[in-house]
Amino acid sequence: MDDFVYKKAFLDEPEQIAVVETVRGLTPGFYIPRTRWGKAMSLRMNCLGRHWSARDYKYHTVRKDVDGLACAPIPDALQMLGQRAIVATRYLPQGLVRPFDSCIVNWYPEAGSKLGDHVDNSESPEAIASGYPVVSISVGASCVFRMGGLSRTDPYEQTTLESGDLVVFGRSRRLAYHGVKKIIPGTTPATLPLPEPGRINLTFRIV
Ligand SMILES: O=C(O)CCC(=O)C(=O)O
Ligand SMILES: [Fe+2]
Fold it and tell me: Does the keyword rRNA-binding apply (predicted)?
C-alpha cells in the first residue's frame, strides 16, 4: 500500500458542518501565527492538545508565543474522526490505532492564504521514527495541495482537496514535503457556517 493515501469524501455534509461548528466554538480560539521574523502567516491557527509555536517550531503546553493560555484539549468528536481516518483508509488495523495528542486547526480565510512546502518534523524523534501517520482532514473551500518526496526537489503530486477530503501520510512518506498552493474561491459549500472563501484543515499528529 502507498504510504500517502488520499480519500475523497471522507466526511459527509452533516459531519463537515459539525467540524466547522466545533472549531469555531473553541476557547481559546484562533489567532494569527507569527514567524520568528515577526511575519504574519496568511492563515489563522488553533492548536489543540499541544501548542505548536511558529516562532520556535516546537510543541508546548501553553500558547507561549500567542497569549500564554493553555491550549484547548482535542474534542472527543474530532479525536474520533482522526482515529477513524486511519481505519477507513486501512492504513493500520483498529488494534494499532493510538490517540493523537495534537490537532492543529488551520483556517485559510482568503484566496491568497497558503502554506509553503514543508516537512512536519517538529515532533519527537521517536514519534517520527515510528512512522505513525499524520491525518489531515479538509473542510470548506477547495485547495490545490501538493505532496512530494523526502527531498524538496523531488517530484510533487498535485491534488485538489475538496470539502470532506482526507489525506493520510506516514511510514516512508512521514517526512515528505507538502504544501497548500492556493485556496480556490467560490468553492466553500453554502451549507457550511464558514465565510467564503474559507478552508479549515485539521492535522492530527502524535508528537
Ligand atoms: O492545510 C493543509 O492541507 C495542510 C496543513 C499542513 O500541512 C500542516 O499544518 O502541517
Ligand atoms: Fe504539514
Answer: no
